[in-house]
Design goal:
The chain has 16 helices and three strands. By secondary structure, it is mainly alpha-helical. α2 packs across α4 and α7 packs antiparallel against α9.
Length: 329
Amino acid sequence: MTPLGPHLTVFLREYLPNQREMSVQTSDTYAYAFQRLVCFAAERLKVTPSELSVEQLDATLVLAFLEHLEKARKNCARTRNSRLAAIKTFFKFLEYRLPSCLEQARRVRAIPVKKTDEVIVGYLNREEIQALLDAPDPSRRDGLRDRAMLRLAYAGGLRVSELVGLNLADLTLHAQPSIHVMGKGRRERILPLWKETASTIRDWLKVRGEPKSTALFHNARGDLMTRSGFKYILAKHLRTARAKQPSLGKKRVSPHTLRHACAMHTLHATGDIRKVALWLGHASLQSTEVYLRADPAEKLETMASLVPPNVRRGHLRPPDKLLAMLRSK
């Protein structure tokens, strides 16, 4: 039996950041996937995590883990596929280090991804987002921190990994306040800060102190804020916001919902999908087009642009070309 620990350590600490040159956020995502897998395997096999072997992570166990993610943890198909991608990358890495597991690696890498629906993104309207941003108590130290985190996550359209990965050195508050963000795929972007967002960050820095971490935001122990930590903070203040905006009770709100809200509000304000893509740090417009499908105003504008100016509204049946385009959206 081959111990899992040494190979997993090299994979996460050396192979991903050095040979594959993956960003810190991507490496953290892979590490979290294996944290869930190791915990699941240890409980299922009745051993401690340090006793797990490579041979025990066979295709049968991986399939059981993926089923556990969907049924027990209520993860969506996209999350399942993301965890599977991390596992497949690890076994591709093992093929060159551990020839004895070639057949095992082939079986694991043959596990198919699950098809995902092109669902309409969920986001919060302006009243709902304002109720959430106002929920933290500014008279408390942790309230100042939470207020700054929520406003920055929304105003910057940040992924949660980008938010918790910010350091003090990434922040500029003089002249034009801005933040330097290292995004997905090692794509960097600099975002100007709204006046209210910069003000809440200044309020937080006054009480931040000198924790052990150089991160912009940290937990109560002074350690780096984690993604699950921010998820807990969001859920806490969401309960408060629902008392003010009952419509929030009908919506499923995750950290990524704030990013969706930023994108939709930016699209409404500018009417330019390219500016939304630039703000969010998307590699291509194809990733941003999901917000067009969620915005009926964009479809109405498209219809209006195809109607000749000399034809009164209601006197022209949309041509087949327009109908086909609307169905595709």
